Amino acid sequence: MSFSPRSICILRLSAIGDVCHAVAAVQAIQATYPDASITWVIGKVEAMLLADLPGVKFVVFDKKQGKAAYKTLKQAFRGQRFDVLLHMQVALRANLAARCIPAKVKIGFDKGRSKELHSLFVNRRIEPQSEPHVLEGFQNFARTIGVTCDKPTWNMPVTEQDRQQAHTLLGSLHERIFAISPAASKAERNWLPERYAALADHAAKQGFSVVITGGPTPLEETLAGDIIRHAQCEIKNLVGKTQLKTLLCVLERASLVLAPDTGPAHMAVTVGTPVIGLYAHSNPARTGPYLYQDYVVEVYHQNLLEQKGKTAQQLPWGVRVKGSDLMAQITTEQVIDMFNHVVEVEKL
Asked: Peptide bond preceding 15: is omega within 30 degrees of 0, i.e. cis?
């Protein structure tokens, strides 16, 4: 850019994993422009995780309010005009929200990643990238305004009280904790409960304490119950017992996390906890746990080739595969082998 921005607005509403990726870019921006004011338009749930992020003012966009959410957004910015808007989401809901944010420059995704009329709501674009991870796409927004982005780092907003709550929930568990966060947003992306249980038993035999984490939804509660019934070892069930910040502290205390394509996998990355990611429907090179890509167990590429007859490099980046039983193709033996590998490499 030809000027140093003094007021910056970030637009990324959801989801948990994506806002975790965006934090790294935002904090890189803060390092380059420490005097710039930063406002982040964000979803209601995501704001619960990032509340009190240093140097950032949050404006919550509650999608459940429908049309009223856009009116609230306009009122929030009445009389303001940002130097730049970093429009980091192509969903139509976010595009309509961008209309309510006054800014001189509105930077959006390159044409290859634009959809749902995204191009109509921006006047500049980030540079195209070859097969980027979602996090790398957000870094390119920062680069567009003159920020140098190297290996991402995070300073997540948790307090000693949050950590104490996590400590209380974990109780007398010893330091080697294996955390299973088994549920994705869609049931078809979840691994089988008996196989999660087999990993729990294997970890327990290696001297790990095992915990299960998750939110208070029927799907997550049922899945956790099924895992515990199949397991021979003792498992501490924290499903529905943690707020997002407390969950982040639980993941911080863990030595290793096992998860499918779900937000807590990316939360764990932000606090430096290794993650074994289980992927079948989406390309882990695009959406996997960023710092732990080598620890992914996936059947995505074989299913992509079977369904599309082409490789990921021959198709538009980010193409997903379909099927309700794809996760069953990931075997217990594959994940145990990865578990043993990670324990050895990370010296857990």
From this structure: yes
Query: pLDDT digit string (tens) for 103-112?
Result: 999 999 999 9
Joined tokens for residue 134: 């979602």
Q: How far from the centroid of its chain's Cα atoms is residue 145's Cα?
A: 24
CATH class of the domain at 160-346 = alpha beta
The three-class DSSP label of residue 224 is: helix
What predicted TM-score, i.e. pTM, was given to this entire model? 0.97
Return the ∠ at Cα 338 (arms to 336 and 341), rounded to 5°.
Answer: 110
- CATH 3.40.50.2000 residue ranges in the chain? 7-144, 160-346
> Which tokens belong to 147?
């920020």
The CATH number of the structural domain formed by 7-144 is 3.40.50.2000
**Beta-strand runs (E) in 229-290:** 235-237, 256-259, 275-279
Q: What pLDDT does 2 receive? A: 76
Q: 106: which strand partners?
A: 85
Q: Which two tokens stand for residue 340?
A: 């043993």
Query: Residue 14 and residue 97: Cα distance in Å, rounded?
Result: 13
Token code pair at residue 201? 């038993």
Q: How far is CA 133 from the centre of its chain?
A: 12
Query: How far is it, in rounded angstroms, from Cα 12 to Cα 34?
Result: 21
* Contact call for residues 144 and 1 (beta carbons, < 8 A): yes
The C-alpha atoms of residue 139 and residue 134 are separated, in whole angstroms, by 9
Give burial (CB, 10 Å; 0-12/13-18/19+) of 116. middle
CB 169 within 8 A of CB 242: yes
Q: Average pLDDT for residues 275-302, to the nearest whole number? A: 98
Do 264 and 213 meet the contact criterion of CB atoms below 8 Å apart?
A: yes
